[in-house]
Design a protein that fits this description.
Blueprint: E1 2-7, E2 10-13, E3 17-26, E4 33-39, E5 46-52, E6 59-60, E7 68-72, E8 78-84, E9 92-99, E10 105-108, E11 112-117
Parallel strand pairs: 2-11
Antiparallel strand pairs: 1-3, 3-8, 4-5, 4-9, 5-6, 7-8, 9-10, 9-11
Length: about 120
């Protein structure tokens, strides 16, 4: 079993910056992919970014490419999402997740609210 707990959400002005964290515990995640997803009111949950727990190849949604950066610590216990120059349309509940692939996420955190004001 894996537990994921997000933190760092809140209110940020457009053009500012915010860093989300996701603390992972439980079984080893060395063979998993970690990712960030988000869900805005009235919309479906969508992919934001992903990174292998033991690799460095990252992938991003086109909407955040060049503004957001996903990373994780070397101990493979914490996942991050650095949000630079956020826009009001980035307002959503952000979830971290882990699984065998981007489309096969098995474990999910409870989510953290990010609100971007204009």
């Amino acid at each position: 079993q894996v537990q994921l707990v997000e933190s760092g959400g809140g209110l940020v002005q457009a053009g500012g910056s915010l860093r989300l964290s996701c603390a992972a515990s439980g079984r080893s995640l060395s063979d998993y992919v970690a990712g960030w997803f988000r869900q805005a009111p009235g919309k479906e949950r969508e992919f934001v970014a992903a990174i292998p727990w033991t690799g460095y190849t990252t992938s991003y949604a086109d909407s955040v490419k060049g503004r957001f950066t996903i990373s994780r610590d070397n101990a493979m216990t914490t996942l991050y999402l650095q949000m630079n120059s956020p826009k009001p349309e980035d307002t959503a509940v952000y979830y971290c997740a882990a699984g065998i692939s981007r489309k096969g996420m098995r474990y999910w955190g409870q989510g953290t609210q990010v609100t971007v004001s204009s």
